[in-house]
Structure formats: C-alpha cells, structure tokens
Amino acid sequence: GKLKTVFSEIIVVGDNEKYFSHMPVLFTRDLIVKPVKNSLTGVHAGLSKSTGDYSLVTACDMPFLNLRLIDYLSNYPVNEHDAVVPLVNGAHQALHAIYSKNCVAHLADYLEKDLYRIGYFITKINTKYIPQEEIEKYDPEFLSFLNINTQEDYLKALELVQKNTELITFKR
After folding, report:
1. pTM for the full model?
2. Residue 61 maps to which CATH number?
3. Domain range enclosing 23
C-alpha cells in the first residue's frame, strides 16, 4: 500500500497469483519463458505490462525499500537514458533501478539469444549510473539493496527489524 503513495501502478511478476490476490497490484507471469529462471524475464514482463514510459524495477527479496530513495530515483531526470541504476560499494544495483519502456525490445532480443545476466544487459543499453554518494543521501546504510537469498540473510534482516521497527514502516 505504501508504494501507492509514489506509483499509480504496481506490477508484480511471479508464478502464483494467489499470494497477491488480496493486494492492489496487477499480477503477471513471464511473457518469455526460458528454461533458466532469471530476473530478466521478470523485468521484461513487468515493463511490457507497464503503462508508463519509465518504471521502477525492484526484486521481491528486498524487504527494506526506502520511499525517499524511490522518490529520488523516480524523479531523476532520465533524459535519453534507458536505465538509471544506483552504484553501491562498486556494484550496480540493477534490480533496484529505473527502466525505460524502450528496454522491452532490447530485453526480448537479449533473451532470444539466451543471455540472462542483468549486469551485462545494462552495459548494452544507455545506462546512467547514480554514484554511491548520491544514494547515501537517501539511504545512508544502503538497506534498500539488502537481498534475502539465504537463511543467514533472513536472520540478518530479522535482527535489523528487531533493532529498528521503523524499517518496516516505509518512512519518508
């Protein structure tokens, strides 16, 4: 619900719609099915369904989204860029970034060639990288980019929430 304060449209790409039926979101599945599960098919599906020229793309395993950072990225002057991607600790954060609708065709071509690495993909389009110093103004601990992929990641996130319950309230 809090993302609705920034976006009029929220699209979730996944395998099982029942988990999202109670939420005010548009659910879709991958439009290009590949034998290898990858984030690019989801990015393609979400951008394909989006009615906007630009969309925030974020992974479902990032529990500490920061509305101040999202607002900053969403209002960044994209100009001619296909993507606006944060750089944190020397690494691109391609799954917490802004993408142009123009990327749909590029993604389809890329996936047709059985290429699946999002890090490589963003080097092949016109990408604007946002330096860490800018990101730090909105998310000084870079918690927006914390992924939960392992039990250890989950325990770290749980510990963070127990120390700071505001993490789960999407404060501006």
Report:
1. 0.89
2. 3.90.550.10
3. 2-168
